[in-house]
Specification:
179 residues, mainly alpha, 9 helices, disordered N terminus
Length: 179
């Protein structure tokens, strides 16, 4: 049911003035109201993914490890492992300091993953329903729940691909180094 809602939320509204270029990449031009109307279904789809991923329990092999590390951060202010990425540690500290429940913590990471991927494909709206369907029903969901840090990096790299395609290599390289 949630997957169907996610697909329906991502489906672009029919356009009475559709041009022969329908289905091709679109640009995000128009006034603020039109851009907001276009972004709301994407935000709803990201929220569905975040809620389902946040409420999951004992999903996959890394769930217990991330849950244990979250408790380590809350109790001692640091992880028991020292090989985590600085951004991951910083964000985890923010959630621990705020006293956020682990479902909010897991939901945030899922929202970040889905948001980056939907952002990358924002000009290809015809693909978004299928992306949402694959995320919720395919093997990707379990992989995303297990390899949180790696998938955030993967989704960020996909979102940065337009920089490489447009040969804006310095911003691309800088963002890659930040990952």
């Amino acid at each position: 049911l949630l997957a169907a809602l996610g697909v329906a939320a991502c489906r672009p509204a029919p356009d009475a003035n559709a041009s022969p270029s329908a289905g091709r990449p679109t640009t995000q031009k128009g006034n603020a109201t039109e851009r907001l109307r276009a972004a709301l279904p994407l935000a709803a789809a990201v929220a569905v993914v975040a809620i389902v991923a946040g409420l999951r329990y004992h999903t996959g092999y890394d769930h217990e490890m991330y849950l244990s590390q979250d408790w380590q951060m809350r109790l001692y202010g640091e992880f028991s492992r020292t090989d985590y990425e600085p951004g991951f540690v910083w964000i985890s500290r923010l959630f621990a300091a705020a006293g956020a429940h682990y479902t909010v913590y897991f939901g945030f990471w899922a929202a970040l993953q889905a948001g980056l991927l939907f952002f990358a494909l924002r000009n290809h709206r015809h693909l978004l329903p299928w992306l949402g369907l694959n995320l919720m029903l395919g093997l990707y969901f379990v992989a995303w729940c297990n390899s949180i840090r790696q998938v955030v990096a993967e989704c960020a790299l996909v979102a940065m691909l337009p920089l490489a395609v447009e040969r804006r290599l310095w911003p691309y390289m800088l963002l890659t180094l930040l990952l």
